[in-house]
Design goal:
Blueprint: H1 8-11, E1 13-17, E2 23-31, E3 37-44, H2 47-62, H3 75-86, H4 93-111, H5 121-133, H6 138-157, H7 184-193, H8 200-208, H9 213-217, E4 224-225, E5 230-233, E6 236-240, E7 270-274, E8 283-286, H10 289-309, H11 331-345, H12 354-365, H13 370-377, H14 382-388, H15 393-408
Antiparallel strand pairs: 1-2, 2-3, 4-5, 5-8, 6-7
Length: 413
């Protein structure tokens, strides 16, 4: 395919001697964001030096390696542009909210005033050390590093920055912390104790299917096929930050409150149902027989509660695990109920997300192959599976027994 020939205005460079005695040049390097021609000015003492500089600049332009140094914005301005106009095209609300919070809290107050071209790897590493000294966890520092790396990668891709210093800077090392999932005996104790809770299948699903918290709380009865014994994961509960609903003509809040949640006209916040974060998260899972029976009994009990509540029952969503009035359960309340359940069951305290670790590990203990486990859990990468599954005692003993049978089995000849 023949490339279209560039016009003279796109390639011609003008060289002249100025009244100051120096040699000047105007080199066309492309177009500005507003569509106007971008002509870069060069100045040298001699004509030979200027010609060399012009050729170097033209070479960068023709190989698409030229960086607009005359538009060297601050890191704060670039982050605002990236978070405000670039990232929303592909990222989800939760991602945008988290990234913006991290940058506004940890980066912009300290590094926001620096020009992009001034940022150096050592400067970022010093900032990471200071964050650690101020009490930030390694997870927080590494999360900030990942967001900065992504933002500056986009600046390089758009030729606003020559090289990304975050690719060179090294964040603090993250020590691997082995999670101890619940054992089979402990899981059974938890399920027994859960029978006295308002939603016993909530915890059965957590320990047997490994659904994420938001996925479990976002289940609708339309997602559960009790006849086929299947459950479809199609949405998740998420909390959105409240926004001010009282902005004036200048876009600033007029209610006098700092937080959007305190605004009398607050909007676009609270608990909402959203699509899962990846396509793999939308999945169909076959239910164990006892769990299907438990869900059927739970549905009958829930229907009786709904009839007793009458018009006070929230009919917006037909939730499998609703509040006492039929609404969405707050993840904070759900996490508190999990801690209470563990205490009642008399087992060691683990995070609610560790129930997901437990489910994956119990599947492996039963000899389920890793690809099937990945399908049930909604993973797409083997590296993710390796982080969630743990070599518990049962697996180590089985591996030792298999190796013993293989190498020390008595020969028949």
């Amino acid at each position: 395919m023949v490339r279209p020939r560039k016009t003279a205005g796109e390639t011609t460079s003008t060289i002249y001697r100025g009244a100051d005695g120096s040699w000047h040049a105007r080199v066309t390097v492309g177009k500005r964001p507003d569509g106007s021609v971008d002509r870069k000015h060069l100045q040298r003492r001699t004509k030979t030096e200027l010609r060399d500089a012009v050729r170097d600049l033209e070479r960068l332009r023709d190989t698409r390696r030229y960086v607009r140094t005359d538009d060297d914005c601050t890191l704060s301005a670039w982050l605002e542009q990236w978070l405000g106009t670039v990232l929303p095209m592909t990222a989800r609300w939760k991602t945008l909210s988290t990234y913006r919070s991290q940058m506004q809290r940890h980066v912009i107050p300290v590094l926001g005033g620096w020009r992009l071209s001034e940022l150096q790897p050592e400067q970022l590493e010093e900032h990471y050390r200071q964050m650690s000294a101020d009490g930030c966890s390694v997870h927080t520092v590494r999360a900030v590093h990942r967001v900065l790396r992504s933002a500056l990668n986009e600046a390089v891709r758009r030729r606003r920055l020559g090289a990304n210093p975050a690719l060179i800077a090294r964040p603090p090392r993250l020590d691997d912390v082995e999670v101890e999932p619940l054992t089979i005996a402990e899981s059974r104790k938890v399920l027994a104790a859960a029978q006295s809770t308002p939603h016993p299948p909530r915890w059965s699903i957590a320990l047997s299917l490994g659904l994420r918290q938001g996925e479990a709380l976002g289940l609708l009865w339309g997602d559960v096929d009790l006849e086929r014994g299947e459950l479809r994961v199609r949405r998740s509960v998420q909390r959105h930050t409240w926004e001010h609903g009282c902005a004036g003509s200048d876009g600033c809040p007029t209610c006098g409150q700092r937080r959007g949640a305190e605004c009398p006209g607050r909007a676009n916040g609270g608990l909402v149902l959203v699509a899962p974060k990846t396509n793999a998260s939308c999945r169909t899972i076959v239910l164990p027989g006892p769990l299907r029976d438990e869900l059927a009994a739970h549905r009958a009990q829930l229907n009786r509660r709904r009839l007793a509540a009458g018009t006070s029952w929230d009919t917006t969503h037909d939730l499998v695990f609703p509040t006492n009035t039929g609404g969405l359960i707050d993840p904070k309340d759900d996490h508190r109920d999990w801690k209470t359940l563990l205490k009642r069951a008399g087992v060691h305290v683990v995070r609610l997300h560790d129930a997901r670790h437990t489910a994956a590990t119990l599947l492996l203990v039963q000899g389920v192959d890793i690809r099937t486990v990945m399908s049930i859990m909604g993973w797409t990468e083997m590296a993710t599976a390796q982080r969630y599954t743990h070599a518990v005692d049962e697996l180590r003993r089985r591996a030792a027994q298999q190796m013993g049978s293989l190498l020390w089995e008595q020969s028949s000849f």
